[in-house]
Specification:
This protein is α/β, with parallel strands linked by helices. The protein has one domain: 3-Layer(aba) Sandwich (Rossmann fold), CATH 3.40.50. It contains eight helices and seven strands. The protein has a five-stranded parallel β-sheet with strand order 3-4-2-5-6, sandwiched between helices. It has a two-stranded antiparallel ribbon with strand order 1-7. Helix 2 packs antiparallel against helix 3. About 4% of the residues have low confidence.
């Protein structure tokens, strides 16, 4: 295993619509010696893993155990397959978490279980930009004035509330708020130092 400046794994979290996937693609395209993985790809609807979880829909404990096992196996395999690269995960770690989980502590998978010294960033964007980018992914944009006082999922008010909750959780768990440019500058500087073997 090799590390850059003592760092082997970087995780970039952020609210839906913040630009995590776009930033990850840009990093993968323009930087050498990095392996970028979108965390949404670990479990997808047409994968056997998703079918196993659906079969456990009525068993919260079994679902949670299987969900964490899938994440643990997926993260371990990706890190092992890229031992000589700086591993960068982009995305939230609650993909396919049980919708019955209401507490954040069990909603997210903890990547530091694999790499305690992982560098963690929260991609911070202004709320107007977040809303523009979020709705830019959809086929239609609801009128902001119509939904301004509603908490219905997908409306501006609900998206802002969710984004604030996601940010609060991650900052409280050691994620440094940063812009895409700041994260990219950090990675450029980090990889410029060169890799050193773990001791």
């Amino acid at each position: 295993m090799r590390r850059w400046g003592g760092v082997q794994v970087v995780h970039i979290a952020g609210a839906p619509g913040s630009g995590k996937t776009t930033l990850g693609r840009d990093i993968a395209r323009t930087m050498a010696n990095v392996a970028v993985k979108d965390t949404d790809e670990f479990i997808q609807r047409d994968m056997p893993e998703a079918n196993r979880l659906r079969a456990l829909a009525d068993d919260l404990a079994g679902y949670d155990s299987e969900w964490r096992a899938i994440w643990r196996r997926s993260v371990t395999q990706f890190i092992a397959a890229n031992r000589n690269k700086l591993v960068i995960f982009v995305g939230l770690t609650d993909h396919f978490a049980s919708h019955r989980r209401v507490d954040d502590e069990s909603r997210y998978y903890d990547l530091t279980l694999h790499c305690p010294e992982a560098k963690r960033f929260y991609l911070d964007v202004p709320m107007p930009v977040l809303l523009d980018q979020y709705y830019g992914r959809l086929s239609h944009v609801p009128a902001t004035s119509r939904f301004a006082n509603e908490n219905t999922p997908g409306t501006p008010r609900a998206i802002v509330a969710d984004a604030l909750n996601i940010r609060e959780y991650h900052v409280a768990h050691g994620y440094a708020p940063a812009s895409g440019a700041e994260i990219r500058a950090y990675l450029v500087e980090l990889t410029a130092r060169g890799a050193a073997a773990c001791v």
